[in-house]
UniProtKB/TrEMBL annotation, chain A:
UniProt-listed Gene3D superfamilies: Rod shape-determining protein MreC, domain 1, Rod shape-determining protein MreC, domain 2, Single helix bin
Domain of life: Bacteria
Designated gene of the protein: mreC
Coiled-coil positions: none
Alphabetical UniProt keywords: Cell shape
Protein name: Cell shape-determining protein MreC
Assigned GO CC terms: plasma membrane
TrEMBL record, chain B:
Record's keyword annotation contains Transferase: no
Residue spans crossing the bilayer: 34-53, 73-97, 103-126, 138-161
Membrane topology: Multi-pass membrane protein
NCBIfam families: shape_MreD
Primary gene name: mreD
Native organism: Lactobacillus kefiranofaciens
Subcellular localization: Cell membrane
The protein's name in its UniProt record: Rod shape-determining protein MreD
Similarity field: Belongs to the MreD family.
GO biological process: regulation of cell shape
InterPro entries per the UniProt record, alphabetical: Cell_shape_determining_MreD
Length: 283, 179
């Protein structure tokens, strides 16, 4: 022990390792526990986010130009597809309008204000992405000043892609739904089975980074193509946000519950504009 | 202006940090190889190049620590990934530069080893704190994919950081030594 204490290099290395472990552990703990980041952290993040937004403009122009050229090449196929969709759109809109009116009247009759499916939207642009391979974190250009709070669901391309993990004043971090973070909040979801009943479970990530609908009791009644959407039971997301569609159903490795693979509906690989969902019902 | 000259390297690293996030966003589709992704390593390469080009300036280790803290807070909200790696990489590169031939290829080998170590270190920390459950196979594939992109980033950054590190060492005004 005396030799160890007299060896300054060894002692310094030991102290540095201890300090690193304390800082790392402390910051991980703070990240998980706090609903809002520290003021200095929020300020620093917003200053870097401002710089990112400035650099993002010319890079976005170049990227947008290349995407436009790609879009022009696909215009004919897209046009044919859209023509087919438009024929159904008029009827769907008319039906939605009638249902919306009926829903309002029924809510008024029952004296209901906020329900599990009530939410408002905040649109934002993705300005940055964590450079590593292991954490799926995006930075968006809206923060708590726009009403964004920790744990709100984030959508892109018609489906849920993740949730807010940190809300600074003018920027926020989004953790993608494909994250393998063990402490991440999972979406509670449901799907309509072939027998007409609702099947409940949660969304997890399998070893090969694909989404799975787990903790399901009777998943064998879910056919491929069934839509899976949030149930609103978790307390953070409203009901009815589309997660994806069922692809295959298998038993888990213990044979105790069904594991249902899901094809995500949201654009997880290349999100540029996202919508943050603010749940209206009291948490 | 002399104050600005002393801080050119710090401003350059801040831009490198921002570019790392922006490149990761826009190049994400190209950084993938099947289900394995390469990391964007502009910032680690920049700090290692500074260490290799200017091996006498002790201030650059403090610059690496400062840049690391900002990068960690901005990208993850966890301090210890960039902060530790950038400081260690800068220190070790300054030591290596004292006996390494001052040629492109020798520095490329050091950078490739460094970025591979960075990917491995990131994997270890994320696994330790429970943010990732990626397997060793995924790590090895990522390291391989990363080598290719590291060469591309190294070629793009080599002359930029070479000139900046030699002409504008951190917190030193070279004009004070010129007659």
């Amino acid at each position: 022990m005396k030799k160890f204490l007299q060896n300054k290099k060894l002692l310094s290395a030991f102290i540095i390792v201890i300090v690193i472990l304390i800082v790392l552990g402390g910051s991980v703990s703070l990240r998980k526990k706090r609903n809002a980041p520290l003021l200095i952290q929020s300020l620093g993040n917003d200053i870097v986010a401002l710089g990112t937004r400035i650099i993002d403009v010319p890079v976005g122009w170049i990227s947008g130009g290349l995407n436009s050229a790609h879009d022009i090449l696909n215009t004919q196929d897209e046009n044919n597809h859209l023509k087919r969709e438009v024929t159904d759109l008029g009827q769907t809109k008319a039906r939605n309008s009638t249902l919306e009116k009926e829903n309002r009247q029924l809510k008024a009759a029952l004296n209901l204000k906020d329900t599990l499916s009530g939410y408002t939207l905040v649109n934002a642009s993705v300005i940055s992405r964590a450079p590593d391979t292991w954490s799926d974190i995006l930075t968006i250009n809206k923060g708590s000043s726009a009403g964004i709070k920790k744990n709100m669901a984030v959508m892109c391309g018609g489906g849920v892609i993740g949730r807010i993990v940190e809300a600074n004043a003018a920027s926020s971090k989004v953790e993608l739904i494909t994250t393998t973070d063990e402490s991440a909040n999972r979406f509670s979801v449901q799907a309509d089975a072939t027998n007409g009943k609702s099947v409940h479970g949660i969304i997890t990530v399998t070893n090969n980074n694909s989404l799975a609908f787990t903790q399901v009791v009777d998943g064998s009644k879910l056919k491929a193509g069934t839509r899976v959407y949030t149930s609103g039971m978790g307390g953070n997301s409203p009901k009815g946000l589309l997660i994806g569609t069922v692809t295959t159903t298998t038993r888990n490795s213990f044979g105790l519950s069904d594991q249902i693979k899901i094809k995500p509906a949201g654009d997880i690989s290349d999100p540029s504009i996202v919508t943050v969902i603010e749940r209206q019902v009291a948490n | 202006m002399s104050i600005l000259r002393k801080w050119v390297l710090a401003i350059g690293l801040l831009i490198a940090l921002i570019l790392d996030g922006v490149a990761s966003l826009y190049l994400h589709q190209f950084l993938d190889y099947g289900s394995f992704n390469a990391a964007s390593v502009i910032l680690p390469i920049s700090v290692m190049l500074i260490g290799l080009f200017d091996d006498t300036n002790e201030n650059e280790i403090w610059l690496a620590i400062g840049t690391g803290i900002i990068a960690d807070i901005y990208f993850y909200g966890i301090i210890g990934i960039y902060t530790v790696f950038l400081a260690f990489a800068c220190w070790i590169c300054q030591r290596i530069a004292r006996f390494l031939p001052e040629v492109f290829w020798a520095r490329l080998i050091v950078i490739l080893l460094g970025t591979t170590l960075f990917v491995g270190y990131g994997w270890f920390i994320f696994k330790a704190v429970g943010i990732s459950t990626a397997s060793i196979h995924a790590l090895l594939m990522c390291m391989l994919t990363n080598l290719g992109w590291s060469i591309v980033f190294f070629i793009l950054l080599y002359w930029i950081w070479g000139n900046l590190a030699q002409d504008y060492p951190f917190l030193i005004d070279l004009n004070a030594y010129r007659v």
